[in-house]
Amino acid sequence: MTDTVATTADSTTPALACRGLRKSFGGVQAVHDVSFDVRPGEILALLGPSGCGKTTTLRLIAGFERADAGAVRIGGHTVVGERLSLPPEARRVGMVFQDYALFPHLTVGANVQYGLDAPAGRAEGLGAKLSRAAARYVPYAPAPADDRVREALALVSLGDMADRYPHELSGGEAQRVALARALAPRPELILLDEPFSNLDTRLRASVRAEVRAILKRAGAAAVFVTHDQEEAFSLADRVGVMWEGRVAQLGTASEIYRRPATRAVAEFVGDADFLPGRLAGGVVTTELGDIATVGEIGDGDRVEAMLRPETVRVAAAAASDPPDDGGWVTAHVIEHTYYGHDQVIALRLAGGALVHARLDFDATHAVGDTVRLRVEGPVVVFPAPAPPHG
Fold this sequence. Notes:
This protein has about 400 residues and is of the alpha+beta class. The chain folds into two domains: about 15-265, P-loop containing nucleotide triphosphate hydrolases (Rossmann fold, 3-Layer(aba) Sandwich), CATH 3.40.50.300; about 270-385, CATH 2.40.50.140. Helices cover about 20% and strands about 35% of the residues. It has a six-stranded mixed β-sheet with strand order 7-8-9-3-10-11, sandwiched between helices. The protein has a five-stranded antiparallel β-sheet with strand order 2-1-4-5-6, covered by helices on one side. The protein has a five-stranded mixed β-barrel with strand order 12-13-14-21-15. Helix 2 (about 110-115) runs parallel beside helix 5 (about 170-185) and helix 5 (about 170-185) packs parallel to helix 6 (about 200-220). The radius of gyration is 26 Å and the shape is globular. It starts with 15 loop residues before the first strand and ends in a 7-residue tail after the last strand.
């Protein structure tokens, strides 16, 4: 068994390069000037809400949709360009569908073999096409002895399941069979469309870890789309947050969470509160006092400071506490949500603003308590939204 996926490009050539991709449907622009690269062996997540263009982008890369404009290069070879759009089978791309798309009448081995019957980029003769079509309707197909099938199943730790049928598999095993089928032809790129949406919540975390480990063992570059932040952050090396047809931000999970590029990204990725303030000299003045800032934004009287719950520190209040003691301010606990591993409380400030704090599982602050809080900065600041007219 080999531990790498064969590619035609050297390590300095992006496994995938998208430039200026555009696609509209009935006058509605679904994808607008999308550009990004995926390095060899890298896993990239396209993260965003429904309708943001992430699935359309994946389909443009795979060749299931034709781009209105832009270019796509896979393994250094142009597959989409001016007056060029290669069909999916000529792009050397492996696809893992949301519903896995396993043939129920074929064994696990035969399902994986199916991905090898027509290697990407090779024209099929009529006989081969007829053979493949007939294979779909064979009631019981034995597991083939192809070395590549054995190699692919061993890669996903299913080497002893070649003779089983899809109905005999768990959801996680079916997911790995679909991945083995995609990896067997040794494509330049693996595309995964909402790959964990059909798994129950308890399975998702373990299967995510398995899929990441498999892709890394195979050395495969991959792009997957998801609306789930936890999924994207835990599986991908980098994340592209899509918003209204564009890539709003591309970076590591930490970069995107700690320093979101826009207010929309900040709201979508994790929990955030926004406090109005005044910015001057890299310090924003808010109801929680003066807080250092990061990022580049000019001074202004109308800005908003983003507060993640993890940055809000809470302490018990006492009658003897001075009004302003080391940046602490008084607030009242108005809501409490317990998650087991941690808990979140909502706090009302004296001026009426609402902020949230994430606490350890054993914290004892309860609804109705008066507490002290402060922010451990620095914080990201955004221009305040324009006030409504009229």
